[in-house]
Specification:
Elements: H1 5-15, H2 20-27, H3 31-39, H4 47-57, E1 71-73, E2 76-78, H5 109-120, H6 138-150, H7 162-177, H8 181-197, H9 203-218, H10 222-239, H11 242-258, H12 262-273, H13 283-302, H14 306-322, H15 330-333, H16 338-351, H17 355-363, H18 373-390, H19 393-406, H20 408-413, H21 415-427, H22 432-441, E3 449-450, E4 455-456
Antiparallel strand pairs: 1-2, 3-4
Helix pairs in contact: 1-3, 1-4, 2-3, 5-6, 6-8, 7-8, 7-9, 8-9, 9-10, 9-11, 10-11, 11-12, 11-13, 12-13, 13-14, 13-16, 14-16, 16-17, 16-18, 17-18, 18-19, 21-22
Length: 462
């Protein structure tokens, strides 16, 4: 009878009277990670990881499905490995969104056409004078221009000189952190064009596609997000940068979670967290491991595993504490620190169905301590989602208005906010504040036509 690798490791460890912590020392993993391998939460499929356990416990390699040691040439192992699991085949399904992100599409075609025409000419998306374009349409404009850049369209976009490209990337990242999506809609497509035009298949293109992936996930464009994430992965692997490779794995895990592939999402994140490329590095590598474990925690919450979510969040918090409280990887996952782990806890607890614990986590954060405008907007929208789940409408509206105050373009463009506002509009009384917010985020406000003795729906007649 075949025994799975995790069960064999657990049985052998117990026979040798080793604790999880002791086996962790022998293999280079935390006790929590050893436990996950034994329980099958993290699949034992990577050849390098399997050999560590085989060597530490003196298990015959063939018992773990291993063959002879791979040949080593010039210091590199030659042979197949399975560092990242194969993703499942795409499926057609209702793509429900995290944090209440419903399929809200309030398209403003004339505004979009006008903005796209201006942007294609190389001018700023948001004019400095005159009537500004509706910010509710910015998300769709940004998505359209990124899509065209990925398909090689809009060839007339001016590509910055090679010396200026990295400056442009820094400015695009700053646009993302400050939620200036009008400016990002100009810079990001230009960067993608520049990367392909220069023949760059490494770091610059990987970072551009990673930024595109994060933005597409935020705007709930999952199909295009998969395409951008895969291109980011290919470029990251070509660059040989372990941090970029790990970050692309994290974005793929997020996309898998959004498709409700929870097992695959957990596998991608935790396998990447324990990949040898991240071990033995500096603080940035440890922080990336924390971000991946944090992502797995949110997946556990979405899968209904509250205990697993809290265990993984605790592990991420321990890594952040060991790093001394410094905010690292601001340009990867929005920053990693004890405060950002606590921010992540808000949405995880809410997704697990406990809004009161989510709000308690929020009270432990000083918003001004968060590393960027984008993270502060996340803070207030997560609080709004928790209040919405709890049925506290007035508090939900106040949190959304606070998010809007800090990051109007983010709040007006994001589908999660549109969905939340739509729900508020139909679930109870409306106020002037709520109606104004609905108009600014592009949610259709339905006004019944009242006659003397009946209510007539617009367009239906009496």
């Amino acid at each position: 009878m075949n025994v799975n690798p995790g069960e064999l490791v657990r049985r052998t460890r117990k026979e040798q009277r080793l604790t999880l912590a002791q086996l962790g020392v022998l293999t280079g993993y935390s006790a929590a990670q050893v436990s996950r391998y034994e329980r099958g939460v993290s699949p034992l499929t990577d050849v390098v990881v399997l050999r560590r356990f085989a060597d530490a416990l003196r298990i015959a390699p063939q018992a773990l499905g291993l063959t002879r040691q791979p040949d080593v040439r010039h210091g590199r192992a030659i042979g197949p490995t399975t560092a990242y699991p194969r993703l499942p085949s795409p499926r057609v399904a209702d793509t429900t969104r995290e944090d209440g992100e419903g399929p809200v599409r309030r398209r403003q075609l004339l505004a979009n056409l006008a903005v796209t025409a201006v942007a294609a000419a190389g001018a700023p998306v948001l004019p400095s004078s005159g009537t500004p374009v509706s910010e509710a349409a910015l998300g769709e404009v940004l998505v359209g221009r990124v899509r065209d850049a990925m398909l090689g369209l809009h060839a007339g976009i001016a590509i910055p000189p090679a010396a200026a490209v990295h400056t442009d990337l820094a400015r695009a990242l700053a646009d993302f952190h400050t939620c200036r999506y009008g400016s990002l809609a100009v810079r990001l497509p230009r960067l993608i064009h520049a990367g392909h035009a220069s023949g760059d298949e490494g770091s610059l293109l990987a970072q551009s596609y990673l930024l595109a992936t994060r933005m597409l996930i935020k705007l709930d464009e999952q199909q295009l997000g998969w395409m951008a994430a895969d291109r980011a992965r290919q470029s990251a692997e070509a660059s040989g940068d372990a941090l970029l490779v790990a970050e692309t794995a994290r974005q793929l895990a997020v996309l898998a979670r959004k498709a409700d592939w929870h097992e695959q999402a957990m596998s991608i994140a935790l396998t990447a967290a324990d990949h040898p490329g991240l071990r033995g590095g500096g603080p940035d590598h440890a922080a990336e491991r924390g971000l991946l474990i944090q992502s797995a925690a949110y997946t556990a919450a979405r899968a209904g595993d509250t205990a697993g979510m809290r265990e993984l969040t605790g592990e991420a918090a321990a890594i952040a504490k060991e790093l001394g409280g410094t905010t690292l990887l601001r340009d990867h996952g929005g920053g990693f620190s004890p405060t950002t782990v606590q921010l992540h806890r808000i949405s995880a607890e809410n997704s697990a169905g406990d809004p009161s614990t989510a709000l308690a986590a929020a009270r432990a954060i000083a918003p001004q301590s968060l590393p960027s405008t984008e993270r502060r907007a996340r803070y207030y929208t997560d609080i709004a989602a928790a209040y919405g789940r709890w049925g506290r409408r007035d508090d939900c509206i106040r949190a959304l208005l606070a998010a809007e105050h800090h990051a109007p373009e983010e709040t007006h463009a994001r589908p999660a906010v549109k969905s939340l506002v739509s729900g508020l509009m139909v679930s109870g009384r409306t106020t002037t504040e709520l109606r104004g917010l609905a108009a600014r985020v592009g949610v259709l406000i339905w006004h019944p036509v009242r006659t003397t003795d009946t209510v007539v729906e617009p367009g239906r007649g009496g």
